Amino acid sequence: MSERCRCRCHIVPPRSCATSRDPLATVYARRRCSIRACGTRGRSASARSSSTRDTGSAPLDPKLHLIARDLGLPDGAKLRAELHNLLVYGPGQFFAPHQDSEKADGMIGSLVVLLRSDSKGGALAIEHHDEKVSYRGSPNQLVLVAFYADCRHEVRPVTSGYRAALTFNLVPRYGSSPH
Question: Which of 95, 114, 128, 151 is surrounded by the fewest CB atoms within 10 Å?
């Protein structure tokens, strides 16, 4: 059975934008949003069987190529997505406007993966110069948003339900190493 990625990708293009690690977040990310290549490489036949596991998969590697292109990186440039955090917002919670600091050596941007949710409010608003965009999660699919680290952004208050997002540091990848 082939696995398909069911997510929407949103990239803040370059014309717009030039905590500690939680072990649970790392485990969750490896299960739901594999950072490695697509497919079932390295898994036993029983692990690939739908009688053993019936889950979706959202491999990031195929998306990273598109993200690099849409961020305006040179042809052939590759990105690595390093898990930064699992953020869960309940009613009334928010993240005030801010600009990301360099959390990893060479970090150029951030990738936010909004997990499926029926929550209300909690939009991710990004601005740079005079341009403003915002993105909301979806109850049916993952939403991926990438932007340069110098973009100011915020999470507006959640009004109901819970909003969950995985955040990744985007770092240029050099050489042929897969990690």
Answer: 95
pLDDT exceeds cutoff 50 at 23 = no
In what order do the strands lie in the sheet containing 7-11? Answer: 7-11, 142-148, 109-114, 163-173, 78-89
68-85 tens-digit pLDDT: 999 999 888 899 999 999
* DSSP H or E run through 26: helix 23-32
At residue 126, the pLDDT reads: 96
Residue type at position 138: S
Is 164 part of any domain?
Answer: yes
Residue 64 lies in a domain: no
**Residue numbers of the domain that contains 27:** 7-39+79-173
d(C-alpha 89, C-alpha 165), whole Å: 9
pLDDT at position 39, please?
32
Given a cut of 50, whether residue 36 has pLDDT beyond it is: no
Backbone angles phi and psi of 59, in degrees to 5: -65, 135
CATH of the domain at 147: 2.60.120.620
- Tokens standing for 65? 């190529």
Alpha carbon dihedral 93, 95, 96, 101, in 10-degree steps, equals 160
Please tell me the total count of domains within the chain: 1
Residue 56: what pLDDT?
66
